[in-house]
Write a structure and sequence with these properties.
Layout (H helix, E strand, L loop, with lengths): L8 H9 L23 H15 L21 E3 L11 E3 L2 H6 L5 H13 L1 H9 L13 E4 L8 E4 L4 E2 L1 H14 L3 E6 L6 E5 H17 L7 E5 L5 H11 L3 E4 L6 H11 L3 E5 L2 E3 L2 E3 L1 H14 L6 E5 L17 E3 H4 L12 E2 L3 E7 L7 E6 L1 H14 L7 E4 L6 H13 L3 E5 L10 H9 L3 E4 L1 H8 L4 H4 L8 E4 L6 H11 L6 E3 L34 E4 L10 E7 L9 E2 L3 H8 L7 E9 L5 E6 L3 E4 L2 E4 H9 L4 E11 L3 E10 L7 H14 L8 E4 L13 H8 L16 H8 L4
Parallel strand pairs: 1-2, 6-19, 8-9, 8-10, 10-13, 13-14, 18-19, 18-20, 20-21, 21-22, 31-32
Antiparallel strand pairs: 3-4, 5-15, 6-7, 11-12, 16-17, 17-25, 23-24, 24-26, 26-27, 28-29, 30-31
Length: 743
Amino acid sequence: MKIASPSSPILTVVSSLGSLDPKISGSLGSRILPATQRSSPSDNLLLHRTMSSNYLRHVESMSQLPSGAGKISQLNAVVLGESLASEDNDLIFPSKEFSGQALISSPQQYMEMHKRSMDDPAGFWSDIASEFYWKQKWGDQVFSENLDVRKGPISIEWFKGGITNICYNCLDKNVEAGLGDKTAIYWEGNELGVDASLTYSELLQQVCQLANYLKDNGVKKGDAVVIYLPMLMELPIAMLACARIGAVHSVVFAGFSADSLAQRIIDCKPKVILTCNAVKRGPKTINLKAIVDAALDQSSKDGVSVGICLTYDNSLATTRENTKWHNGRDVWWQDVISQYPTSCEVEWVDAEDPLFLLYTSGSTGKPKGVLHTTGGYMIYTATTFKYAFDYKSTDVYWCTADCGWITGHSYVTYGPMLNGATVVVFEGAPNYPDSGRCWDIVDKYKVSIFYTAPTLVRSLMRDDDKYVTRHSRKSLRVLGSVGEPINPSAWRWFFNVVGDSRCPISDTWWQTETGGFMITPLPGAWPQKPGSATFPFFGVQPVIVDEKGIEIEGECSGYLCVKGSWPGAFRTLFGDHERYETTYFKPFAGYYFSGDGCSRDKDGYYWLTGRVDDVINVSGHRIGTAEVESALVLHPQCAEAAVVGIEHEVKGQGIYAFVTLLEGVPYSEELRKSLVLMVRNQIGAFAAPDRIHWAPGLPKTRSGKIMRRILRKIASRQLEELGDISTLADPSVVDQLIALADV
């Protein structure tokens, strides 16, 4: 998108709004009348509708957008806290009260900041970076980049020569600023009533103790440490301890199989692995130490031996007596860490020194070790957290993601703590002991910012709303969505039921590779469209290109790329820079290729359509799986859907839909036909599913990601090629789906 172009959709909206009095803060529509004339909510709603119709060009073909928002006969809008969002409302405006206190309170303010971040990225990011502690400032060149493989090796550097430490900025800096007694972490255990907390001073002390232990056992700057822990407080402690001494942490989701863990150990060759003996997830006990033992046995056969396995004694899940032990290698965490000093010197590192490795697994080939460095990542995660959630010092923030994924790195540990935030860390399952657990936690800790995955939202939608409404949730101020496009019906339920129609939703688009948010709403600034990620974050210039790599302007659909670098971008794939270039920069020379499809509407809003490999080509029609899924879940008896492509002898590819029904709804041929008709009506006959496969549940990781490669194998009956299903939250779902294949 060309920000400077007069024909830019965003600029068209802003210039139209520019006639409103800039001196009056508040929501967009409330600027039209003086306060004495804004007498009633109904007047306000009418006012917003009038303003919307005049100033925002509605997309009449909204039903054809990938998110399947449904046909809307006329442009409507609601104001936060005044009305429910329904199928007839496609714009949700921030209220005067919310905008008045927001960090970014208007489209004009956003545009000014975004324009500066594009015109003067060095100055923009330098000003923000200067708010953090640097032992030594970076040189005259703030950043250097080459994103064009035709001009040489891909290279991205930010703040090179600047010397800092992210742990120091997360902890010491906050303690020195007087936040030592502020709660850093509220920890909620799997079982009701099991909890703990740490202040910033206490967290710093425990981080220093672990850091001293690692140093005492030979871990130095640049050495790798693998962390295979559940969501105990010891997980962020371990990450911060590694960062403090310049070690490179590689967190592996504590749900990966021994084979998957061994692959990662063999690739990064850690000196130490940190784990615990077991964890309870819901009613289920998982023996993590046994998985680590098997992985270490396998890696040693491949020539990679790990000298120390530091094991946390999680007595709530199992006992020491029931934990198998390898003398000379295994060490109990509690037996040694408490003996170490509670202060530890900081290892100052260059901004471009490695911070962490995070492996992303594909359906084939070895995992990709995404490498993030220190300085740019630090600045970017802190800034995105601050603005995308409109963070205030009084907020209590809860992200339901596991630190085994990038969301847990950027928005459980680093981003929040760089802002001195209070964070909730939850060990258990969101539906244990029942579907009201999330809202019980929200009320218990007075959570004000709640960030979760659309899959969890849809899962909770299946259950009675009473699980939500029996709790107060009055503390909630901002909601957030991460991991995949959120379909409009789930967005509306999240907004109306969970947020009581008063909490904006930061529907974020980003990736492991980007480090932080790339396209996201800013609460208080822009009206939202349910299902749209809205507009790019500061310093981000998304472009939509066609198959030939030609940029498409205005309303369009195509491949989502990014022009130019940003501070949080990953720098390489560990040990395989060629794969880094081939995967992300060769498909469209001169751009970072996200691998995602995207549409932009006439108002400039971005709509993510899912992975490009999740786009199905049916008789020449390119259909995003997210588009079909959104149409299916509009059916009143459909709780969730996942769509994959299968070979079709006539059409090339056919559409295969796995459908989860609402609780108690029986399978029937009439319902199957009704679901197909829903898609035909919403999108068109060409998008009608060829097959509806009943699904009591979908194969998901604990973080809520649907494992589509497993669905593809089931749909194509390649059952012998299902691969590793150990990371699923419920592996038994796979057998249920196979049993229903011919129903």
